[in-house]
Design goal:
Strand order of the largest sheet: 4-3-5-6
Shape: elongated
Structural class: alpha+beta
Mean pLDDT: 77
Distance between the termini: 29 Å
Largest sheet: 4 strands, antiparallel
Oligomer: single chain
Low-confidence stretches: none
Length: 191
């Protein structure tokens, strides 16, 4: 039965590869998750791995805990109003980048002083909210009052991304099921 299942999995993989589906499809998309599920060599009773594929974040081929993307932003020069010449609301002058590869392309040739203009919103591994200059040292504080609406939008997006807590809860269920299964196997071997 195991050989028949392996042959079926290889057929599914071949079918997906002919249509352009592979490991290189965009991360965290439906195609990538289907590819990982079909090419997984875990047994059917190891449901924890499959659940982690569907609710986790793809980080270099490893399905880690679901983390919302980091937002990188900088304040641009304000645009004056048409009649008065006063600057417009500062929130309209922010450049926000929500993709890391785009951020790396934009900041490729910048020195440290030019990089200091960029700030970031992100969640740490311990679920702490980091604000400001994340990668350039210092503490995470010092938001101006014009950055608070950006922070509010980021927190709303991160709660939607986590399905209001359900996604991380499902991921922890799958992780605990997988660890418990391997723990019982190794315990039986020791006895």
């Amino acid at each position: 039965m195991a050989k028949a299942m392996a042959a079926k999995t290889k057929r599914i993989e071949r079918w997906m590869r002919k249509r352009g589906w592979s490991y290189k499809t965009p991360n965290n998309g439906l195609r990538r998750r289907l590819w990982a599920t079909a090419s997984s060599r875990n047994r059917w009773r190891d449901w924890g791995h499959y659940l982690m594929i569907w609710v986790g974040t793809d980080f270099g081929g490893n399905w880690s805990e679901p983390d919302p993307p980091t937002w990188y932003y900088r304040e641009d020069s304000s645009v004056p109003m048409k009649f008065t010449g006063y600057p417009q609301h500062p929130r309209s002058t922010y450049t926000i980048i929500k993709d890391y590869t785009t951020f790396m392309e934009m900041t490729h040739d910048l020195n440290e002083d030019q990089m200091y203009i960029w700030k970031a919103f992100c969640w740490s591994q311990d679920r702490e909210l980091h604000l400001g200059h994340q990668y350039w040292g210092g503490r995470y504080f010092g938001l101006s009052r014009w950055e608070l609406p950006l922070l509010k939008d980021y927190v709303k997006m991160s709660h939607r991304y986590d399905w209001y807590g359900a996604r991380s809860w499902l991921y922890s269920l799958g992780l605990h099921a997988t660890v418990k299964r391997f723990k019982s196997i190794s315990h039986d071997r020791l006895v």
